[in-house]
Amino acid sequence: MSRPNPVTVHLPQPCHESWSQMNPVAATERHCVACQDVVVDFTQMSDAEVVTFLARRPEVTCGRFTETQLDRPLRGLPEPAPRWRTWLATTAVLLGL
After folding, report:
1. Mean pLDDT, consecutive 10-residue segments, the chain of 97 residues?
2. Which domain holds residue 40?
3. How many domains does the chain have?
């Protein structure tokens, strides 16, 4: 299993519309009248949550980010350990008993 490419968020032309003036759609989403699109608030999400959200909803094109979330690779969830390691550890414990 190969690791997915890291996600980096880069905003060459940030939106200048006010978040507070946008119409609420959901807890973390608002509708921007200027661009007629839904804007997702990523500011309270961890790197892993942002990566997971974008993987599940690739159609999202507008987002609100903090400065620290931009222009750097976002760390997703760690890759799970291979199953053979789990089986090896379980076997070792059982043989030790």
Report:
1. 70 88 94 92 94 91 93 80 78 80
2. 10-77
3. 1
In a domain, 90, yes or no: no
pTM score, two decimals?
0.72
What is the identity of the amino acid at 86? Answer: T
Q: What is the DSSP string of 2-21?
A: PPPPPEEB--SS---S-GGG
Question: What span, in angstroms and rounded, lies between the C-alpha atoms of 12 and 27?
Answer: 26
Position 1 scores a pLDDT of 44
Please check whether residue 86 lies inside any domain of the structure: no
